[in-house]
């Protein structure tokens, strides 16, 4: 037994010395990316603002409740969370490939032999022989195997699996960002439609009252039939807008309900006029590409594809495994536990490919092609992110300018309505002039609601373009302070951690 144990120790020492000799495939290097020297609309340090739960700055408790509900119940976000669990489990499976595998076996067998085949022969005590027609076999023992990762196949596989976990986590955060901004966008749009619907109903009532007044004047000879027809047409012009706006409200409520993980139905909300416009995030942080989950996800996909090249190249080289067996075996159950029934073995096996018909070369080419695709996808994602940031900055700047000009237009049109009504009352103009002025004012009011809505949507687009650390805080609140799996704990502790640090934490 000392010799046997000594051989096992020697084998384990040999395995420890050999594992880590070579790691095939290219080591990952982050590609150089050209960043813009300046943005179209420069604003002065947004990190603190975008790292907070920015939607609370709008001052609407109903919106806070809806976003919290969406984070908990949105089905797309739930699917993304389950995908993180899936890839974390796959990482656990991959890690196990580089560790010793220990198993057990037990066997109780009774076998009958054919008369037409050679059979075992038993020697009797008297020196005679007889052929065995049946035979018992009893075995119990443990087995051991360990693949020596001489070429780094398992290490590259773990690197790829760890990157896949990180990519799935980034995908979940990207989905969370999309869900939150989509709920906020839909909510603001709903409030704007409510306000437009209120304006349309009020305009319909005012024009109905105006029609009744003109009708009386016509009956008294103070107005023409043309005035009556114009007043009636103006009333119906607004009347047809009311059901169309009601349809839009119902459809957007249903779409918002889907974001919340609900069945279609009404959505409790406040008023557009009650919303606050929080401070515009000043400046774009220099580490914007480290904050955007879609960019981080694209890089982790590139890391995974890069590592899989090494996995494919390792197929050219043989796999070497240590194996061992220690157990008991006997043909009689009563002698199974005796020392003489002990059986053991230790050895090393080598398995390799001599000719694969080009399969291995094809696998390497395919892995390299996927890596190149992920590189292009990574570069494309960065360009898209930069475009979205620049678009959001321009949108925010111009939406404010447009809304300010619209406010001035409304003031001028209100004066026009007041003056036209005064001229009509003084007999200096026709009622058609009053209707035209009122129509211009209503259309401008309707458009101004859209302009005010856009000032909020522009702000939301900036928050979305910047990413932000608030997602980590949300995860920690829902996970009780941290995730259970080791693959996601390190990134959650520091939302600004580099890709290299995050990838190492998953190994």
Distance between the termini: 38 Å
Binned strand content: 5-15%
What is the helix content? 55-70%
Tally of strands: 6
Strand-pairing-aware structural class:
alpha+beta
> What's the total helix number?
14
Task: Give helix and strand order, one letter per element, not per position.
Answer: HHHHEEEEHHHHHEEHHHHH
**Quick one: biggest sheet?**
4 strands, antiparallel
Strand order of the largest sheet: 1-4-5-6
Radius of gyration: 38 Å
Cα shape: elongated
Which spans of ≥5 residues are poorly predicted at pLDDT below 50?
1-13, 15-20, 41-47, 481-498
Overall mean confidence score, pLDDT = 82
Overview of this protein structure:
The two termini are 38 Å apart. The chain contains 14 helices and six strands. The longest helix has 67 residues, at 153-219. The protein is elongated, with a radius of gyration of 38 Å. It has helices spanning 2-18, 47-50, 61-73, 75-96, 153-219, 225-239, 241-259, 288-291, 293-313, 359-425, 431-466, 470-478, 486-493, 499-505; strands at residues 101-112, 121-123, 129-131, 134-148, 319-330, 342-351. It has 507 residues and is of the alpha+beta class. The chain has a four-stranded antiparallel β-sheet with strand order 1-4-5-6, covered by helices on one side. Strands 2-3 form a two-stranded antiparallel ribbon.
Tell me briefly what this model is:
By secondary structure, the chain is α+β, with helices and mostly antiparallel strands.
List keywords for this structure.
two-stranded antiparallel sheet; 6 strands; single chain; alpha+beta; 14 helices; four-stranded antiparallel sheet; 507 residues
């Amino acid at each position: 037994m000392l010799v046997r144990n000594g051989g096992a120790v020697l084998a384990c020492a040999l395995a420890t010395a050999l594992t880590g000799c070579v790691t095939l495939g290219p080591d990952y290097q982050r590609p150089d990316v050209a960043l813009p020297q300046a943005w179209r609309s420069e604003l002065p340090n947004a990190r603190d603002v975008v790292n907070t739960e920015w939607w609370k700055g709008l001052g609407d408790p109903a919106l806070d409740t809806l976003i919290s509900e969406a984070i908990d119940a949105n089905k797309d976000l739930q699917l993304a969370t389950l995908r993180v669990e899936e890839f974390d489990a796959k990482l656990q499976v991959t890690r196990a490939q580089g560790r010793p595998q220990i198993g057990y076996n037990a066997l109780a067998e009774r076998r009958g032999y054919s008369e037409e085949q050679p059979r075992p022969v038993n020697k009797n005590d008297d020196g005679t022989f007889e052929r065995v027609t049946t035979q018992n076999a009893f075995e119990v023992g443990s087995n051991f195997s360990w693949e020596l990762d001489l070429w780094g196949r398992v290490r590259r596989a773990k690197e790829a699996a760890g990157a896949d976990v990180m990519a799935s986590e980034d995908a979940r955060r990207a989905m969370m960002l999309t869900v939150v901004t989509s709920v906020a966008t839909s909510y603001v749009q709903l409030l704007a439609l409510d306000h437009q619907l209120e304006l349309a109903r009020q305009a319909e009532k005012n024009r109905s009252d105006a029609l009744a007044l003109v009708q009386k004047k016509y009956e008294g000879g103070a107005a023409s039939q043309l005035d009556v027809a114009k007043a009636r047409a103006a009333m119906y012009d607004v009347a047809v807008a009311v059901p169309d706006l009601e349809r839009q409200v119902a459809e957007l409520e249903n779409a918002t309900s889907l974001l919340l993980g609900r069945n279609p139905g009404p959505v409790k909300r406040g008023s557009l006029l009650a919303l606050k416009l929080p401070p515009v995030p000043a400046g774009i942080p220099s580490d914007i590409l480290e904050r955007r989950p879609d960019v981080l996800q694209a890089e982790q996909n590139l890391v995974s594809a890069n590592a899989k090249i090494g996995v494919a190249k390792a197929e050219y080289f043989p796999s070497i495994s240590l194996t061992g067996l220690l157990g008991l075996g006997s043909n009689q159950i009563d002698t199974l536990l005796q020392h003489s029934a002990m059986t053991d073995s230790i050895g090393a096996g080598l398995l390799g490919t001599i000719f694969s018909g080009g399969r291995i070369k094809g696998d390497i080419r395919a892995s390299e092609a996927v890596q190149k695709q992920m590189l292009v996808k990574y570069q494309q994602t960065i360009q898209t992110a930069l475009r979205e940031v620049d678009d959001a900055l321009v949108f925010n700047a111009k939406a404010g300018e447009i809304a300010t000009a619209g406010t001035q237009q409304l003031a001028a049109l209100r004066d026009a309505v007041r003056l036209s009504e005064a001229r009509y009352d003084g007999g200096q103009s026709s009622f058609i002039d009053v209707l035209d002025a009122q129509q211009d004012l209503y259309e401008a009011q309707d458009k101004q609601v859209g302009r005010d809505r856009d000032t909020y949507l522009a702000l939301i687009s900036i928050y979305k373009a910047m990413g932000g650390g608030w997602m980590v805080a949300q995860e920690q609140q829902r996970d009780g302070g941290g995730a259970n799996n080791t693959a996601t704990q390190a990134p959650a502790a520091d939302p600004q951690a580099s890709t290299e640090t995050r990838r190492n934490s998953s190994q």
